[in-house]
Write a sequence for this structure.
């Protein structure tokens, strides 16, 4: 933007050329209007970018929430069989010990 200001036609007009003040003001207004238009366009682009980032963040948050829910569900469902298997192992050990003691005795 600074480069555009440096290259703008009104910079050369203020350096001592023989142009009337009315013409300078019109050209300055044109440059200002053009720059304001560019600023507005950039503002709209930034707003659009922010909306896209927010939408992506919402999708990521939803994905993470679903994954976490799935992991919790799997962990819970794995704990139940683990407890059952543990109980079966304990019972089998007791049976084996009682069978060994019965055979010895």
């Amino acid at each position: 933007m600074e480069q555009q200001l440096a290259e703008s036609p009104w910079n050369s007009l203020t350096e001592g050329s023989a142009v009337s003040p009315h013409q300078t003001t019109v050209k300055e207004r044109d440059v200002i209007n053009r720059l304001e238009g560019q600023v507005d366009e950039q503002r709209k682009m930034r707003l659009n970018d922010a909306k896209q980032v927010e939408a992506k963040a919402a999708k990521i948050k939803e994905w993470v929430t679903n994954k976490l829910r799935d992991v919790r569900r799997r962990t819970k469902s794995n704990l139940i069989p683990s407890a059952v298997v543990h109980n079966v192992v304990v019972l089998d050990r007791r049976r084996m010990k009682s069978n060994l003691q019965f055979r010895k005795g």
Remarks:
- The chain has a mean pLDDT of 83.
- The two ends are 100 Å apart (CA to CA).
